[in-house]
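Support case: user asked for a sample of complex input and structure output to validate their parser. Sending the pair below.
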Amino acid sequence: FRFKDSLAADLQSADLVISHAGAGSCLETLEKGKPLIVVINDKLMDNHQLELAKQLHRDGYVLYCNCSTLVETLQSMDLTALKPFPPGQPEKFASFLDKALGLQ
Amino acid sequence: AGGHTTEILRLLSCLSESYSPRHYVLADSDKMSEAKIRSFEQKRAETFSESQFSLDRIPRSREVRQSWISSVVTTLYSTLYSLPLTYKRKPDLILCNGPGTCVPICLSAFLLGLLRIKRTIIVYVESICRVETLSLSGKILYYFSDYFIVQWPDLKKKYPKSVYLGRIV
């Protein structure tokens, strides 16, 4: 499929997701609690896109590889080692803003 | 645009109705955000029936990887273009999270503040994608915003005037 409006249904039924390092893809997948392998394309990518993928890997939420090591990663992966991804907390933002603006 | 829109709608999700009416500003070339915004506002209206919002478009201030010099020119153009809009809305608060579109809006509000026409509080939330480095919009608005929020501790260390609340989207 080229561009679906939403991958939510596909994500829901997947057991494993292999994705590029786009933030939207990574976060959407992690929030659905699906194991994720992020594939980095060194040649195409903007350096800054790597930051999030690297950090998520450092924190133990995703596996990480490049195109040439993908097969090897798939063969040796241990998905149980991945940590569950806690959701973001927009309520902290709301609370901060209310206080900052004197709206409490 | 895209990821920015998703993030900003999440930021808005917990805000009370004090933050109303909401005026959304999009780049003229942005095709997908409008639908997301309308959907968000529609859902919101189910809980808060008096909910109000509007949508405006401004020329896109910068294409990806556009050269530095031409970016200054196009951003200046977008800033001037935004002035009548910002003047009309006279927002109490501007909330933005990094697309190029936000720079002209914030600059126009800052200008109106300097001219004592309207003092707007500018709150900038850097995208969750930014772990170690700031976006270009962030680097600029770090100096113009009243509150600059980052979502990763490395950035808080590098930009001490920023606020760190953890992951908020």
